[in-house]
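Working notes for the structural subgroup meeting. M.R. asked for a predicted model of this chain before we commit to crystallization trials. I am recording the input and output together here so anyone reviewing the notebook later can reproduce the run.

Input as submitted:
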Amino acid sequence: MTALQAYIGIVIAFVCAAFALAVAPSKRVLIFAGISAAGWCLFAAGSGVHMALALAVSFAIAQILGLAGIFVAGNSSLQNPVTKTGYLLCAFSVAGIPPCFGFWPRLLIIMETVQAGAVWQAAALILATLFILFSLFRGSEKVISGDEKIPLSSYISLSLGAACLVLGFGFKPAIAVIQSILL
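Returned structure, recorded in token form:
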């Protein structure tokens, strides 16, 4: 079952990332990015890699924080440094850019997959990552535009982005806590 689960996960991750790239910049990109992240988690849990469940859970946490922050920033159509910073930090985490939290589980899943000899699966995951990266930043200028007032949602987005950054720097303790909870 785990091999089938891994294959289904990689197909979901890749296809939804391709859809995120294909749709016009909108909230649909976030939906496809979230479903792609679920595919990553399914792949990690079913692939049998070292620390598979802990990596899947930490990846899910990173994606939930990042996507929530992007959604909140996108609901605030105001141009200000707080919203921009929150959006960028959350987008960096979702896209897997270091040192944000979303980078580390993604990197470890890819490294473990390559070490297991499944290079084509790792290549598909890397390509899915690039699709998500381009789809998030293609529409970033449309998400943030407007006047100077800073709403509460901007601070919420910035807080979620800061959490992604702090968890990225503290990934080792965070993954240890997740592992201890799961075991």
